[in-house]
Amino acid sequence: MNKMEQHPAPRLDATLEQILDLARWAPSGDNTQPWRFEILDERRLVVHGHDTRDHCVYDLDGHPSQMSLGALLETMAIAASTFALDMRAMRHTDTPDTRPTFSVEFLPAPGLAPDPLADAILARSVQRRALSRRPLTAAEKSALDLALPPGYQVRWLEGGQRRAAARLMFRNARLRLTMPEAHRVHQAVIEWNARYSEDRIPDQALGADPMTTRLMRWVLRDWRRVDFFNTWLAGTLAPSLQMDLIPGLACAAHFLLVADQPPQRLDDYVAAGRAMQRFWLTATALGLQLQPEMTPLIFARYLREGRVFSTTPGMREQALRVSRQGEALAGRQDWQAAVFMGRIGAGRAARSRSLRRPLRDLLLPSGSP
Ligand SMILES: Cc1cc2nc3c(=O)[nH]c(=O)nc-3n(C[C@H](O)[C@H](O)[C@H](O)COP(=O)(O)O)c2cc1C
Q1: Boundaries of domain holding 86
Q2: Same-domain check for residues 41 and 164
Q3: What angle do CA 125, 85, 276 make, to 5 degrees?
Q4: How far is the CA of 107 from the centre of ligand 1 (A)?
């Protein structure tokens, strides 16, 4: 459809507006919010998704974006349940994988109980700083296990394995901080001098102390500075201690969400994102904080598939060491079937966090391609 055939968005029904207003708080990798909404009528819309694979080394085949879209759909369904509306979502199989598109419809379901996770939607946020080391209680672990739909299991990494996971994250940080492809992403996704950010990650939410953050801001502006600092001044040491090793040790556990069938198709990643969001919202409802640790899984997949992710010599070897550590920690099968990794523990909610683009900026005119 060309521009001439597009129509302005129909007036937004009040209930639909409240559902979308909550749904947009779903998490997305680097807070990219890869979704736009085309309203068809008061109970139907099209979700237009996209991914960032062409410029983001972490968005391998768009899978993290597809998981974010899954989180969006799950949040939408949870929000709809509070209005006794049952959500049906169907993916358009004729759109390319780079543009996942879904028809969404809300049907009256008078007997539908409101999903209790609705109360956690706004409170859920990443906490990248140190958490309590208090082990999770049996009741907490069981609630988190039960949060997952059939087809997924939690693999807990506690005690000695927590320390091993922290070492893995420390090594992985070196990889991220010395790779020019990752540097370009960090430059684009961090909003400096910020406690909140509508479309990126505020620097204060990263987990480093103010001095290290200031230094990072200056260094990250130019790859030559990064390279110089890394080569001569152990530039990765302070950031990776503060953002990876210390938080990696200061938590109750690390965990993997493992799929019974390793995900392959776009729909598998969307489903995995829905499971991830139920797990994360349940953690929030229990008063626990969580931080995703996705990059080791992403680099492991690059390696498994023999794909090049960096032109810099030595990066592949570094990633190989991280991935071997992951296999030794979780076992090869679980490591390869993991769809999500993170750390979790009791603690205060983050003081600084990502916000979201206003709903009006996410609305597309109807008839959008
Ligand atoms: C698929 C996915 C992968 C993510 N990977 C990471 C990660 O590796 N490290 C991290 O600190 N945060 C990660 N995040 C968290 C996002 O950066 C965060 O959700 C986003 O910035 C919005 O912030 P909020 O969750 O606090 O609302 C990830 C989120 C998603 C959905």
Answers
A1: 14-123+355-364
A2: no
A3: 30
A4: 31
Are 83 and 106 within one domain? Answer: yes
Say how many domains are in the chain: 2
Q: Which residues lie across from 101 on neighbouring strands?
A: 48
Distance in angstroms (rounded) separating the CA atoms of residues 286 and 178: 37
CATH number of the CATH domain containing 311? 3.40.109.10
Report whether residue 240 contacts ligand 1, using a CB cutoff of 6 Å.
Answer: no
Binding site membership of 100 for ligand 1 (Cβ less than 6 Å): no
Asked whether residue 360 falls in the same domain as residue 308, the answer is no
Print pLDDT tens along the chain (369 aa).
444 456 666 689 999 999 999 999 999 999 999 999 999 999 999 999 999 999 999 999 999 999 999 999 999 999 999 999 999 999 999 999 999 999 999 999 999 999 999 999 999 999 999 999 999 999 999 999 999 999 999 999 999 999 999 999 999 998 888 888 988 898 899 999 999 999 999 999 998 889 888 888 877 778 777 776 676 666 677 787 788 888 999 999 999 999 999 999 999 999 999 999 999 999 999 999 999 999 999 999 999 999 999 998 899 999 999 999 999 999 999 999 999 999 999 999 999 999 999 999 999 987 776
Residue with token string 């040491």? 237
Task: Assess whether the C-beta atom of 31 lies below 6 angstroms from ligand 1.
Answer: yes
Q: How much distance in Å is there from the Cα of 106 to the middle of ligand 1?
A: 28
Alpha-carbon distances, residue 146 vs 22, 89, 309 (angstroms): 24, 23, 36
Place of tokens 């961090």: 190
Residue-wise burial string across 37-51, b where 16 or more C-beta atoms lie within 10 A, e elsewhere: bbbbeebebbbbbbb
**Residue 353 Cβ < 6 Å to ligand 1:** yes
The pTM for the full model equals 0.95
Q: Same domain, yes or no, for 305 and 170?
A: yes
Residue 71 CB less than 6 A away from ligand 1: yes
Same domain? For 87 and 29 the reply is yes
For ligand 1, is residue 274 a contact (CB within 6 Å)?
Answer: no
**How far does the centroid of ligand 1 lie from the alpha carbon of residue 8, in Å?**
33
